[in-house]
Amino acid sequence: MEWADLVSGVLAAAIPMAVPLLLVGLGEMFDQRAGMFNLGAEGIMMMGAFVAFFIDLKLQTPWLGLLAALLVGAAFGLLMGLVCVTFRSPQGIAGIGIYMLGWGLSGTLFRVYVGGPTPIQGIASLNLSSLRGVPYVGSVLAVLNPMDYAAFFLIPLSGWLLFKTAWGLKARAVGTTPRAADTLGIGVSRVRYQCVVLGGAMAGLAGAYLSVCQAKMFADNITAGRGFIAVALVYFGRWSPWGVAVGAAIFSLAVAAQRLIQFYGAKFPYELALVIPYVLVIVVLACSRNRDKSEPTALGKPYYREYRG
Amino acid sequence: MAEQIKLLEMKGITKRFPGVLACDSVDLELHAGEVLALLGENGAGKSSLMNILYGLYKQDSGQILINGSEVTFDSPLQAFTLGIGMVHQHFMLVPNLTVTENVALGLCHDRTFALNLGEVRRKIVDVSRKHGLAIHPDAFVWQLSVGEQQRVELVKALALGANLLIMDEPTAALTPQEADELLDLLRDMTKRECSVIFISHKLNEVRKVSDRVIVLRGGGKVYDGPTRELSDSELAGRMAGKELGQAAARAPQPLGEPVLDIVDLHARGDRGVKALNGVSFSVRKGEIFGLAGVSGNGQRELAEVVNGLRRVDSGNILLDGRDVANCSPLHIIGQGMGYIPENRIHEGTIPPFSIRENLILKDYDTDKMSVHCFLSMDKTRCFASDLISSFRIKTPDMETNCASLSGGNIQKVILAREITRNPKVLVAVYPIRGLDLGATENVHEQLLRISEAGTAVLLISEELDELLALCDRIGVIYEGRVMKVLEARKTDKQELGLLMAGVESPSEIESPSCPDERSIELEEVST
Q1: Strand, helix or coil for residue B433
Q2: Which of A122, B26, B188, B444 shows its CA 20 to 30 Å from the CA of A136?
């Protein structure tokens, strides 16, 4: 077996795995930076996946499907904001509620209006022959989905938004010491709403990627826990876009390697191989500490201006 | 830049919180270039009144007028565009942002993308030059000492264009020298047509800095007039509602054998850096040993190490001759250790538990409280009602949540629990922090009483008046080392203050620490 084949084989399996994690993870990062802990990302992904699939099925316009998933995700983010920012409900419970709602609603709508497994046209992969020349990875990079390139581009864009703009500065302040932000005239609720809507939209997009770009169909529980893995990846990545990207890469490479082990029929119990990526996430989480002070310390805490603590 | 505030008036300000009347139709007037002191005990409504002026709270009734025209605040944004700046008691800084970014937050509230940190940095440097406030604009706030953070708060307020500064208990965490510098600085600023509202419950500072004083008690105004017209005891009397005697003076005690012996103790702080660097001292039976120092010099770590709550790297802690270093807290309590922790709400008590439950926390498993393995309601009730009456804990009943008591009464609960166990050693960490005069007096009485009964008391404090009045000997802790142990009767605030600032011999006073040196240190930290 050639090294080049191995590398491109692992990459080809890892990239489609990494992209939805990256999309939902970056969204969740904005949520958490502003102090909003959105456990409902998984449910929002399912809604995004269904909506994009359904629009593609009925109108044969996958790009419109992606846009619709973005909007539905934003609407779910708005709901999360309403419950947790305006009504100051506990975020963990609200997040589980959003997850259940997204799961139940997408499954029900699917059964009522579609019924069984139906293929869609989806968004096809590109074929950029100019990239073929790149050693080792050229053959993989040339045939990616347009959304894959977009996801890669979102990493530096998120970094710029979070660390180089006034809005990012506000978001970081609001998630760490909302009271300090408030005394400087920053609308804490407003910024939290913005982040949670952005996070919802990204989760919707991540779901749409699964149905429209990857599977080109919809099935119940299509997200298979990726929304929850993303929450862990945000901790792993220390709330930085690069960290989230590294986390998504490690996780998907572990998944891809695990598949490869099975594929080549190595003498290794496949159940154990399946566990590897998840164990990896737990180990890494257990070992990470708040050395760099990047943790949003007000994460999960509702803000109430006239609370006297 | 905001228009200058020539006259600020607050008329009939009333604010209610659930169950509390925080401000009861208070009037206030302030002219440009004036320093107004706002004096009152905890809960007198000082901070609430100022938070209304700053737009954080909304008053239930009353008006605010600036230069004669009425203004309303929905958020601090309006307050600081009108030129009102506030330095809060608990600093309003974001620890994981740099100094520049913290100031930028206030300047960029209406922008989405554009963020010109270079311009903000220049503004900071300008302001800090103009007012002589040395700060390092690129340091992260979490790297700064309390004094430096205070300077950042001041620079922030000034950079945002404040010409009326509200200072909420600004000297609480400073050394006496730093506090004096700050007071001079505030005086200086009034010459530039700034006005200052200075909140405090320290009489000497109020006298030093203010032209006029307003005394609040229980939300209402009880005095408004020139500071020099009232004596200290009259002011204290207005504040407390009764004339207070001087703090009980300490009679010379016959001191016994050392009970707590700390030998060359090393330990690390939360961030893994050395917090204790070879601490050695001993506390004798019946003695009150004071440990003075600016907070953050290893006091908290020392208290935790002695009580088994933090690992000792090397060294010994001899409690009555037996080494208890790295023993479990339970073992150390069993050996006769009592502890009044720094944080009375989260360490000293369990807030949602009742007073009765909090009082038996250290004895619930003994025969005093239980029958076989079951808690005895009768025994615990009897015990709790005894303590509530003998320590005069003000509460509706013993089943009330500890969280709903005032700070002074929570401290009484802790004192009652610790003192009735007759410990050999009692470690008290900042026991009067945030308490008003009445509650402070009570804590001091209890400490004196227990030391006369033979307990060795280690009192960690930054209030020099308290230490000088109560202690037999005072050690000064600086950067994890005890600099010097002094006889309390043979020292004074000046000497202690210098030691607290790390100046070992008086000759060093002539060369004040150069701000550049500090900046260099910071740069090393950040790289």
Answers
A1: coil
A2: A122
> Measured between beta carbons, which residues in chain A are less than 8 angstroms from residue B113?
165-167
Burial class (CB in 10 A: 0-12, 13-18, 19+), B371: exposed
- Structural contact between residues B42 and B407, judged by C-beta atoms closer than 8 angstroms: yes
CA distance B36 to chain A (A): 22
Torsion of Cα atoms, B323 then B328 then B330 then B332, to 10°? 20
What does the block give as tokens for A110?
């699917």
Q: What is the spatial distance between Cα A178 and Cα B504, in angstroms, rounded to a whole number?
A: 41
Residue B265 and residue B486: Cα distance in Å, rounded?
20
Question: In the numeric block, which tokens belong to residue B179?
Answer: 């506090």
Establish if A301 touches chain B: CB-CB under 8 angstroms. Answer: no
* CB-CB neighbours of B98 under 10 Å: 20
DSSP chain A: --HHHHHHHHHHHHHHHHHHHHHHHHHHHHHHHTT---TTHHHHHHHHHHHHHHHHHHH--HHHHHHHHHHHHHHHHHHHHIIIIIS---HHHHHHHHHHHHHHHHHHHHHHHT-S------PPPP--GGGTTSTTTHHHHTT--HHHHHHHHHHHHHHHHHHHSHHHHHHHHHHH-HHHHHHTT--HHHHHHHHHHHHHHHHHHHHHIIIIIIISS--TTTTTTHHHHHHHHHHHTTT-HHHHHHHHHHHHHHHHHHHHHHHTT-SS-HHHHHHHHHHHHHHHHHH---SS--S-TTTT----TT---
* Helix H or strand E encompassing B368: none
Q: Name all domains of chain B by residue range, CATH numbers in brackets.
A: 6-240 (3.40.50.300), 258-336+423-519 (3.40.50.300)
Q: Is B3 helix (H, G, I), strand (E, B) or coil?
A: coil
Which residue of B94, B112, B140, B144 to mutate against A (max A Cβ within 10 Å)? Answer: B94
Chain A residues with CB inside 8 Å of B95's CB? 176-177, 293, 297
Contact B40, B11 (CB under 8 A): no
What tokens appear for B285 in the block?
């039976």
* Cα B304 → chain centroid: 19
Chain Cα centroid distance, residue A144? 19
CB atoms within 10 A of CB A190: 13
Q: Which of A166, A176, A186 sits opposite B96 (nearest CB)?
A: A176
Give pLDDT tens digits for A213-272. 999 999 988 998 999 999 989 988 889 999 999 999 988 988 888 887 777 777 777 777
**Residues 6 or more apart whose Cβ sits within 8 Å of residue B42:** B201, B406, B407, B408, B434, B435, B436
Supply angle C-alpha A269, A275, A276, rounded to 5.
Answer: 95
Domain ranges of chain A: 3-126+135-287
Measured between CB atoms, does A15 come within 8 Å of chain B? no
- B401: helix, strand or coil: strand
Q: In chain A, how long is the greatest CA-to-CA distance?
A: 67
d(CA B472, CA A29): 55
For residue B290, the Cα-to-chain-centroid distance in whole angstroms is: 17
- Please write the tens of the pLDDT for every residue from B148-194: 888 899 999 989 888 899 998 888 777 778 888 888 888 888 887 78
Predicted TM-score (pTM) of this structure: 0.75
Residue ranges of chain B with pLDDT lower than 70? 1-2, 18-20, 42-43, 241-253, 271, 505-527
The values of phi and psi at residue A308, to 5°, are -105, 100
CB B349 within 8 A of CB B415: no
- The C-alpha atoms of residue A239 and residue A176 are separated, in whole angstroms, by 12
ipTM for the complex shown: 0.86
Looking at chain A, which residue has its C-alpha nearest residue B53? Answer: A183
**In the CATH hierarchy, which fold is given to the domain comprising A3-126+135-287?**
ABC transporter involved in vitamin B12 uptake, BtuC (1.10.3470)
CB atoms within 10 A of CB B386: 13
